Amino acid sequence: MANSTTEKAKAAPAEPVSLMSVLAPAVGWLIPGAGHMIQKRWIRGLLLFVSIVTLFLLGLAMQGRIYKANGGDILDILGFVGDVGAGALYIITFAMDWGQGAIAFATADYGTKFMIVAGLLNFIAIADAYHIAIGKKQ
Amino acid sequence: MTITLNHFSAALVFALFASIVFGITHRDNTRDMVKYGLYCFALFLGGVFVAGWAMWLLRR
User: Smallest Cβ distance to A114: which of B4, B14, B16?
Assistant: First the structure.
């Protein structure tokens, strides 16, 4: 078992590290969909941008809260990992002190989940942008 | 600005945007992307109805 794994690893060609394979995920993280746009996948990039940004902003408008890095609780840390995937949206929200959450609103919890999911969806979009950059996907 | 969505509309919005991202990222060509996006959307909405009826039955 271990031998076959080692052989597979040896047989697999090394992925070339191009500028785009680093730039596309980085830009895609900062601005959702931008990783696709800089590779001239305009429509895909625009749809990803609209979907992720709208989900995040809806979450914010529903009085959802964002998680901070030093939450302490393991669930807070996982929430932070999800939120931080939204890139600049998270940074701006954090810097402007928005997303404090309002327990007076029953839908605020949905908003919190919307923002986490927006970040997680952006992680998927980042992986997709990387796959395009290395030629694994068209 | 505060937006208040009810449970169903929140699920609908979530399903729509998540399906768009899933469709684009999980398939290679445009036709398959649209088909997979619609499939995910149908599953999300189907899941909402199934969960809704399951909770209704549990409440009885």
Answer: B14
